[in-house]
Amino acid sequence: MKAYLLLALTPLFWAGNVVTARAIHADLDPVALAFLRWLLVLLMILPWALPRIWRSREVIRTHLPILLLLSVLSVASFNTFIYMGLQDTGASNAALLQSAAPVVIVLLNSMLLREPISLRQWAGILVSLTGVAVLVSQANLATLLALEFNRGDIWIGVAVLTWSVYSVALRWRPQALDGFTLFSVSVVVGTLALAPFGIWHLGEGVEINWGLPVLSAIIYMAVGPSILAYLFWNRGVAELGAARAGLFIHLIPVFGVLMSVLFLDESLYLFHGAGILLIFTGIYLATMNRNKTRKNRETAKTT
């Protein structure tokens, strides 16, 4: 029961990250926000991270290129693009568009790793991408044909692509590093990569409202979506397995939409429902075959 609670809290934290960033989008530059968030995470985990990084220094040195790539894609880029997108689009749209990531991962696996895609999976990809098109065009065919999309939705799309490439690249992570050490390296490298841009944005004279809402938002983003979500997710996966835990990811758009309506007074329209229905249908079609294949392989190994 505890594992289910932890896995339910994880997407709640991640959805809260989007809603919180949208709530303060007018008070703090998005790049500065990303930098301050990860700088605070780094300061919080440093006492535990440094000894692990030092003990694993040879492994880190050997696998430095892939670790640099993973760090830049995850810590330095993904949330920065999300925060940039939230300057111009609603939190509900951002949460819904992120739900297309599993389908993008299937597509990238085929393009980059030559993994075959079945007819059912192709159908899922097309259905899911149709859902994305419905969201970004607000179900307006003229907007779709004219390619006049909300700039924020485009940044969210870039973030989804970034996270999908990161997810595919994880297969080359050094297996000798435990999860927390990998997380720590990513935070150190990602924060250093963000530092020049974050410091520049903080010093360029843009007015920042350093009130309680902004400070509490940064603290929440560092503690909830970053540290606690990581710990809760790993504990849930350890107890229930990756396949069952993965289902909880689909709660992100649900929580995101609910919190957007409750805390940001955002309105829901018919195109939101149509878009998420198409995306979820596409996810089911695109990932079902892969899950069945994995289960068949596991069964074969035990017989």
What would you note in describing this structure?
This protein has 303 residues and is mainly α. It has one domain (1-289). Helices cover 82% and strands 0% of the residues. The chain contains 14 helices and no strands. It has helices spanning 2-23, 30-55, 57-62, 64-85, 91-98, 101-113, 119-137, 141-146, 151-169, 179-203, 212-240, 242-246, 251-264, 270-302. Residues 293-303 have low confidence and may be disordered.
Radius of gyration computed on alpha carbons: 19 Å
Structural class label = mainly alpha
Q: How much helix, percentage-wise, in residues?
A: over 70%
Beta-strand residue fraction: under 5%
Low-confidence stretches: 293-303
Order of helices and strands: HHHHHHHHHHHHHH
Q: What is the arithmetic mean of pLDDT?
A: 85
Instruction: Give a short account of the largest sheet.
Output: none
Distance between the termini: 31 Å
Shape designation: globular
**What's the number of structural domains?**
1
What is the overall number of helices? 14
Q: Can you count the beta strands?
A: 0
Protein name: Drug/metabolite transporter (DMT)-like permease
Keywords: Cell membrane, Membrane, Transmembrane, Transmembrane helix
Membrane topology: Multi-pass membrane protein
InterPro entries: Diverse_Substrate_Transporter (IPR051258), EamA_dom (IPR000620), EmrE-like (IPR037185)
